[in-house]
Amino acid sequence: MTVISSDKNLEALSITMIAEFDAGVERVWQIWEDPRLLERWWGPPSWPATFEKHDFVPGGEASYFMTGPEGEKARGWWRFTAIDAPHHLEFDDGFADENGAPVDAMGAIHGAVTLEPIGERTRMTVRSTFEAEEQMEQVLAMGMEEGMQQAMGQIDGILAEHANA
Description:
There is one protein chain. The protein is α+β, with helices and mostly antiparallel strands and 165 residues long. Helix content is 23%, strand content 42%. It is built from five helices and eight strands; from the N terminus they run E-E-H-H-E-E-E-E-E-E-H-H-H. The protein has an eight-stranded antiparallel β-sheet with strand order 1-2-8-7-6-5-4-3. A hairpin with a 2-residue loop joins strand 7 and strand 8 (121-129).
């Protein structure tokens, strides 16, 4: 399994997941930069993502939906706040309504992703920071931690397919 650790910190209102991959930093970066690769792993296997917009620049936005086993759709949005290719990106992440508009009542989660080389491998650290303890507890109750572990577990297969890309 690619996820080597998952740490919930209620005091810091954060979840930090660390995964390692048998690929260089530039290849792992592509799974964030290329929306067709991103949608192959963002979301657990039973809730695949479709990115309708992916403006991967600081200040750019992304919109997506995940389709559940019964055809239901859960929509989300990102706003990229920092991009330092191929080592670091940050974005605000939130829920969206059926028209793709942010659902303010759910707040936003700040994501920070760091990619660092470990020899020929890459360590990816994903830190999600919440606005309030209630928000963190609500998202955890929805299965965010398990979903992210399942989602990140799909990355090895994608990287293996694109090993010579």
